[in-house]
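[09:14] KT: can someone run the structure on this one? pasting the chain below
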Amino acid sequence: MDSLLGSYGLLIFLGLFPSLLWLAWWLRKDAHPEPKILITKVLLLGLILSPLAVVAQLLFVQLLARVFGLDASSFAESRWFYLWAALVEESVKYFAVLFVVFRNPEFDEPVDAMVYMVTAALGFAAMENILVINRVLGDGLTVTAGIIGLRFAGATLLHALSSALLGYFLALSWFYLRYRRALFFIGLALATVFHWIFNLFVSQMQQSVSLVFSTVLLIVMAFLISALFDKIKERDGLARARVA
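[09:31] RB: done, structure tokens below
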């Protein structure tokens, strides 16, 4: 029993490790740190809600198979399925923030939208990491460490960046209240397309080619998101200065 609990504990730790590393880095960009309890709640809810994305993806495939007579397995490998999967995953991460934060008084700065969206995304990615690592844990330390490294630099970062992009548009709605709904849908669409393109690179190209394209895409987006973090903080500072 103790060894079983130890194995599960190790699995959870290894799955969370890439997310926690990125979370520590992203939180450093917040000049006014958020309450640790809220960060923890959003991270855990992102993790807990992640299976809903899998259910929604499978139900969609089965629905199309029944209604249009499509081959479910073939569609599940198509580019359009990856688009649907990206939309579902971005929506689930958003709901994790919506349920915990949006009506909380601690949600008091535009940049908070980016911080919490990244946090939810890293919780979501942690569950994916746990599932992937569970499949390779028996293959030895070298393989497991390699997978963790790839997840850290790839899929885990992808989730953080795509959700940060949506978070930026949520932050913009602080300044353009009349266009809040439009900004949300623009942000969701852009986050989904970015996520989709990354998945296409990884799934439908040769491994060496996909590694180059996906790495370049992540690097470009990382610089963009970092600039957007700074831009939204600067804009908020100017707005507060005018009010004062």
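[09:33] KT: thanks! The chain has a mean pLDDT of 88.
[09:34] RB: yep, looked fine to me
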